Structures are given as structure tokens and as C-alpha cells.
Amino acid sequence: MLGCKPIRPLLALAIGATLCAAGHASEADNTARANQLLAKMTEAEKISLVHGAGFFTSPIGGGGFVPGIERLGIPPINYADSSSGINLMGKNTTALPATLALAASWDPALAHRYGTLIGSELRTLGFAGGLGGGTNLAREPRNGRTFEYLGEDPLLAGTLLAERTKGTQAQHILGMAKHFAVNGQETDRFNSNSVVSERVLRELYLRPFEIAVKDGQPAIVMCAYNKVNGEKACENKHILSDILKGEWGFDGYVQSDWVMAVTDTARAANSGTDEEEPGSANDNEPGLMGRGTWFNQKLAAALQNGTVAPQRLDDMVRRKLTMLYRHGIMDAPPVPGGQVDRAAGDKLALYAAESSMVLLKNAPKPGTSQHAPLPLDAAHLHNVVVVGGHADAGVMGGGGSASVPARDGNAVPCRTPGAKDSVIHIFDLCAIWHKSSPLEAIRARLPGATVTYFDGSDAAAAAAAAAKADATIVFATQYTMEQVDLPDLSLPDATRDPANQGYDQNALIDTIARRARNTIVVLENGTAVTMPWVDKVQSVLAAWFPGEQGGPAIASILFGEVNPSGKLPITFPASEQDLPQRAISSTNPDVDYDEGLLMGYRRYDAQKRTPLFAFGHGLSYTHFSYTGLHVTPYANGDVSVSFTLTNDGPRAGAEVAQLYAGLPVDSGEPPQRLVGWQKVFLKAGESRKLNLTLPAARFSVWNDGWFVPQGEASLTVGGSSRDAHGLKASFSLGKRLLAAGA
Fold this sequence. Notes:
This protein is of the alpha/beta class. 24% of the residues lie in helices and 19% in strands. The chain has a six-stranded mixed beta sheet with strand order 10-17-16-15-11-14, with helices on both faces. A four-stranded mixed beta sheet has the order 8-7-5-18, with no helix packed on it. Helix 1 (27-38) crosses helix 11, helix 12 packs parallel to helix 16 (550-558) and helix 13 (438-444) packs across helix 16. The longest helix is centred in the N-terminal third of the chain and has 17 residues, at 108-124. The two termini are 36 Å apart.
């Protein structure tokens, strides 16, 4: 057996660092070792490895637990929720900005570091697997879990998840992609049926998983609660066996989501699910919501009666053992009891927050000779008013299994203590607030000024003070969480969100904007926000759920210490009437994706609608220009693109240069799709020529197989999907059939 010294978690954040030789054996060795161990196992031992021990059984407090087999040297596997940090009380884990914020950074290198930190903290605390890696596309921005995912574009989402996965698994942790697939809303999530055509399934909703599986090679893919075209996702042979394991060659294991994802033992096992979670000691005893489980005694019975073949059980176990060998867990099992490096976590949390915030608007007040209010100039500010959003105490985090407990206790008491979701009665309706006060960070930058705080409950008093202030900063919050969808995208009030909100936020902003000299709105948001007041305010900054260092990061952006470089990973609609479904039905389980490919920015482009803020939009304190676009198709179907990017403004900053392709008109595609991007930092006055090669697959469509359509195509490069100053060039595509799985 290969040996290895115990692995010490990575404290530095250097990409690609390795810890020891564990997991570095060849794939043939890993498979051979798995087969040798499998041959020694009894049927009962095999069954014990393909289901969890039940809710709340992890001895170190994780979300899932599979006991080990001591006589064979198989270690226990503890899993922890880890969307944007580890959901574990009392361990000082780092709350990074929400995954949606990571998407807004458009930075693959940051995604790698993000995954590296989470993987390091997981292993430090004794966990073998992380339950993060959400990448369901934001078709429905009212989805309560939008903040956990990576936006509305499959290329962006898949690329970032692949890099995050590489970072996590480099720490000898089992990485994950979830929820497979078409898991687009929380309403009736255990019964809802996503009805979607094969073309739309392939081009949009499976595509980010395909990219992540092929490029990131996660050890685990978690199948979803919902049905896909009438079959439960965890009992759906087409997506699990035919596509995931067959076409894509996924050699890890498929793990079920946690409640009611499996409803039939043989159907789930034979379709491709390899592990049931949370499982239980006894399938026949009712668990959460009164339901039993399926992969323990019921799996033994299915093997006995022949509805599940012994070879299938062997495949389930072999997949898991191979992953344990590949990622060094067999040779160096995680050891609980380590101490998280808070300084390293804080450093990355600050950088990630600063890199992901999106400046949506920044303009002078109409009819005045003022400049745009941001960045704030501390030397010329004498009287500043800060209002609302508990900015005096901390910053908001998202809820459900993706929440990360506040290190030093919740900064804001709940308005309705103990309130839980109405379905499974587990998830808090009260937000987590991290003790990272924006007000404190603002005051630190204005030692000689008067900075007055109003909690927002008295709009008239705040507006009266704002009328005399040099600048007014209003903080607005939008709590989102697992199990609960939003009724709309408006900022909530006390009626909409009584657990967290005590006043009408839209009315507050409107009242202040009517009187203030300059109104700056900072959003702490988990998804898109509608803004009936947007024309009355001067600046809007989307800070998302900004994590552990949100307060200082917000201040550094507001004062120009960091030039904002985030770009929207989702479209902000002008109203809910622009969405594919006008409302989320609580009575009809069929969710019909009858808009086809017209989701997100594709919908706005095809229907010539004007969004509130476009996909890819994000302002800067400097200015970038694009020149010299050249597009060259290669004989192999790839496309070469070159152009020059210049920072012709007054400050250093980073730009996300985005490339969109328009396919031949008879291809039946929306007007454009994202086919590439590069985030580039330039000093003031600096120019750089960028050269990108776009693979043929970026231009492919699905029709019983992938192919590149023939005809005239276009390539646009600019700072957003609707950059009026972007460059456009035409080129020809030749029809090309792509190999299966290309």
C-alpha cells in the first residue's frame, strides 16, 4: 500500500500547492487498489458504504456521515455544507462572499483560491467531503438559492465551478457539483417537475455541469430533489447513466440530495445513484417528514430479490473507493481538531468581496454641476449620513444549508426568534449577520467628519439629515434562503420579511432621495433587485452577501481604495413581467421551460427588452476602450480572437473583456451567447493586446448530437452583453459534427 505522512492543511493560498504524495498514484493504481479492497468486503459492508448513518449523526457536527470499516482500513467520511464557507458552529470558519458574488468577480483564479480555502478548512476540521459546488442556472431569480449558484450563463458557471473544484480537491477533499439537474426553484422542490426539451437541457441546464465534470473532475455529483421530464432526478437513467456517466465519462459517485430525493431503491440504484443521504440505520423507520430511507435494508432486499444486481452494488462501492484513493483520503484520513487560520480566511474574504462588488450606477444628480458621487473624496466630506441595513452592526449572509455561522455571535437579533421554514421546519427564517460593520469602516476613513447613523425606522428624520449632508449612504438588504422562494424581487418590508425587516425599504430610499444632495444605495442582496427609485438616486453598489470582511470591503470600494471590477452574472429585470414565468406556482408541480433557450440575457436580446441592468454590466472609476478586433476561424473549428484593451481613464483597474458570438441566423439560437472572457488589470494609460482561442464547442448547438452550424457568424467584444461601444466582426463557420462528449 502506498504510504503518506499525515496531511497538514494548506494555510497559504498558493494555487496548485500540494501537501504530500497521497493521491498521486496513477489512475490504474487507484482502480486496482479499489478492486482489491472490494474483493475483501462482505455484502453488508458494501451496503454500509453506500448510505449515510442518518441526520445529525456526524460525530464532528457535519451534515452527513458514512461510518468507516475499521478492519479494512476504510476511514469514516464526514461531509459538511460548504457553499461559501463551512456551516459549522463554533469553529471560526471563514464566511466568504456568497457564490453568486464569486460569479460576479468573473475570475477563475479567484474561484480556485475560493475552493482552496474551503478545502483547507474542511480538512483542518476533519471533513473528507464538502457539500458546496452549486451551479444551477438562474432561470428564476426569485429562487431562494440563487445566492448559492453561479449566475445565468452556462460557460461562466461551469468554468468557475471547475476551478473551485480543482482548488478544493487539491486539499485532498472530495469536491462536488450540485444539484443535478434543472433544480431551478425551491417552491414544492420535492415534487416539482422540470419539463424541458433535450436541446434546452443540453445547451443550457446541463452545460455548466458538463464543463465542471470534464474540467474540474469532481469526486461527487449530487442529484437533485426535483423531477426532470417526469422522473426524479436521482432515479433518472437518462441524465445519470446515459449522459453523466456515459457520454461525459464521470467516474466519481452520484450522491442523493438529503430529503425525499430517492423514492424507490431499485429505480435509484439502477439509474445511477451511488449513495443515499442522509440515509439511516433502519430504512423502515420514519425519519424527517415521516419518510423512511432506501439504501440500507431495502437495498439488501433488492439484491436478494434480483431487482438490483450485485455488479451494480460493486460499481457503487468501487466508485467511492476509487475517489477515496484518488484524493488521498484512504492513505491520510482527515483528522478532526485542527484550528482554522482566521488571518488567512480574512485575507481572502476581503479580496474576494472587493473583487466581486458591482457598481451598477454612478452619475451626478440631474440639473447640477456635481461629479458622480463615487468614489467618495474623504478630504471634501464634512457631514455624512448612513442609513439602514444594520450597517452599524454588520453585514447579512444567506440562509439554509449554505449559511455560515457568524464567528463571534450574530450581530443582529432576530425580530421573530426561533422562526423556521414552514415545510421541513429546519431552516431559520432569521438572517445571519457577520460582525463586520460598514458604518465603522466608513467612520475610520472620515476621522474629521461628522458621520451620523439612522436605523431607517424614521424615514422623515433620516431624510431631514440627508438634506444637509455632503453624502448619504443607504444600506438595503434582501434576505434569501433555501426552502423559500421570493414572491418578487422588490426590497422586502416588514410584511414581506417580518423576521428581518422592520420598515419599508423602498419608501425609505425614495424619501431620502427626494431631499438628499447625493444618495448612494448599497445593496446586500442574494439575487436581482427591482428598483422603483433608481432614477432618483445617484449611485447603486451591489455588494451581494459580502462575507466576513464585508464592512471594510464596502468602504474600500466607496472610497476608491479599490476600483470596482465586478460584473453582473445575472440580468436585473425591470420587473417580474420580464421573467419566463410570471409567478412561481405553489399548486402546479409542472414547471414548464417553454421559453426554450430564451432565458436570462438571451431572452432580453431576442425579445428586444431593456433590462434594468444587463448581464455582464459593471461600472468602474476609470474607463476602458477596445480597438483592433481580429477574428480568424481555424480549420479545426476553433476561432482565434485578438484585440487591444486600453485603460484610458485616470485610475488603475481591472476590466472583464467579454466575448459574445452570434451564430448563423438559421441555427435557431438567441442573438448572442457568451463564448469567452478575460479579466485584465491595467494601470492608467496602459494598453494590452489580448489573444484568445475559442474552442469549436463554444459555437455548437444540439440536435441529437453536437454540431457547429454553417454560415455567417459574428463576434462582439466589450464590457458587458450590451456594451454600446463594443467592437463587432463577422466571420464564417463551417458545419462540423463534434465527437460525443466534445
